[in-house]
C-alpha cells in the first residue's frame, strides 16, 4: 500500500471567462506551499491552466482533481460536455473548433492539448461524444539524487 496522496479538487464553471485561471492559480500556490520543485510546479500549472480553459470554453465546465504523491503529481480532469469526436485530430497543433468570438478573446490557437502533452510525462485523453471527456496527466518528480549515486568509471 502506498501513502495517501494530498488531494485538491477544483470545480470550474463553464463559460465564465473572468474566472479563467482561478483553479490553476490556486493549484500553483498549493504546490509552492508543499515545496514542490519550481519546474514541476510550472509544468503542472500549464497543464492545469490549459485544462481549465478547455473546461470553460468547450465543455460547459467540469472539475480538476490534483493528487500529490511522494514521487509524482496526477491531474484528473473530467467534464460532461459534448466530447471530442476525433482525439488524434484534437491533439494536433493548431486544430481548434473555437468560434471567432472566442479567438477575439485570445483563445482558440489550438495549442492547449499539445501544450498539456508537452508538459506532462504522460497524458491520457478519453472522450465519448455526447457524454464528456476525461484527461489523466502525470508529472513525475525528479528522483532524489541521494538515492542515485553517480557511477564511477
Ligand atoms: N473538454 C473538451 N470538451 C470538448 N472538446 C474539447 C475539449 N477539450 C478540447 N476540445 C476540442 O479539442 C480542440 C483542441 O483543443 P486545444 O485545447 O488544443 O485548442 P483550443 O482550446 O481550441 O485552443 P487553445 O487551447 O490554444 O486556446 C478544441 O478546439 C475542441 O474542439
Ligand atoms: Mg484549449
Q: What report would you give on this structure?
A:
It contains 5 helices and 5 strands. With 153 residues, it is of the alpha+beta class. It has one domain: Histidine kinase-like ATPase, C-terminal domain (Heat Shock Protein 90, 2-Layer Sandwich), CATH 3.30.565.10. Strands 1-2-3-5-4 form a 5-stranded antiparallel beta sheet, with helices on one face. The structure holds adenosine-5'-triphosphate and magnesium ion (MG).
Question: Can I get a quick summary?
Answer:
The chain is 32% helix and 26% strand. It has helices spanning 22-33, 38-57, 87-90, 100-104, 112-119, and strands spanning 6-13, 61-68, 72-79, 122-128, 132-140.
Please write out the topology.
Layout: E1 6-13, H1 22-33, H2 38-57, E2 61-68, E3 72-79, H3 87-90, H4 100-104, H5 112-119, E4 122-128, E5 132-140
Helix pairs in contact: 1-2, 2-5
Adenosine-5'-triphosphate (ATP) binds at residues 50, 53-54, 57-59, 79, 81-84, 90, 95-98, 107-113, 133.
Amino acid at each position: 500500500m502506498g501513502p495517501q496522496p494530498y488531494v485538491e479538487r477544483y470545480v470550474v464553471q463553464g463559460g465564465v471567462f473572468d474566472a479563467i485561471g482561478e483553479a490553476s492559480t490556486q493549484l500553483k500556490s498549493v504546490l509552492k506551499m508543499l515545496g514542490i520543485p519550481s519546474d514541476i510546479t510550472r509544468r503542472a500549472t500549464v497543464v492545469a491552466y490549459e485544462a481549465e480553459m478547455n473546461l470553460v470554453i468547450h465543455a460547459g465546465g467540469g472539475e480538476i482533481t490534483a493528487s500529490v504523491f511522494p514521487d509524482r503529481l496526477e491531474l484528473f480532469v473530467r467534464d460532461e460536455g459534448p466530447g471530442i469526436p476525433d482525439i488524434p485530430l484534437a491533439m494536433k497543433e493548431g486544430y481548434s473548433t473555437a468560434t471567432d468570438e472566442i479567438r477575439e478573446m485570445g483563445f482558440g490557437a489550438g495549442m492547449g492539448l499539445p501544450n498539456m502533452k508537452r508538459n506532462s510525462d504522460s497524458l491520457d485523453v478519453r472522450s465519448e461524444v455526447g457524454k464528456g471527456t476525461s484527461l489523466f496527466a502525470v508529472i513525475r518528480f525528479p528522483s532524489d539524487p541521494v538515492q542515485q549515486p553517480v557511477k564511477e568509471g
